[in-house]
Amino acid sequence: MAVLTVSTNVLSVNYTDEQGQLLDTLPVCRDFKYGECKRAACKYIHLLDDHVEITDMRVTVCRDAVSGKCLRNSCKFYHLPIVLPHPAALASSLAL
């Protein structure tokens, strides 16, 4: 049985833009990478998977995983640790 490990700051990260569209890349926390992030509400990705590719301290979001279709064993792209609401629902809540 696989154990899912999720970072404690997943709800602090902005996964979408102002219109509720999923971002293509997300910034990685440099401090966490070196075991030194003390921010409980850090807005950067606390990357737990060592197989995810980092370029210029950013990870690329796996669009296949978002749609539930990623079949790669060790995907080099970042799999979101939470399920995001549909963009239309997010946009309507932002308009309130």
Automatic annotation (TrEMBL):
Please state which protein family the record places this protein in: Belongs to the muscleblind family.
Q: Where are the zinc fingers (C3H1-type)?
A: 23-49, 56-82
Q: Which residues form the C3H1-type domain?
A: 23-49, 56-82
Q: Name one Pfam family in it.
A: zf-CCCH_10
Q: What keywords is this UniProt entry annotated with?
A: Metal-binding, Repeat, Zinc, Zinc-finger
Name of this chain's protein? C3H1-type domain-containing protein
Native organism: Daphnia magna
Q: Which SMART domains match?
A: ZnF_C3H1
Instruction: State the source organism's domain of life.
Output: Eukaryota
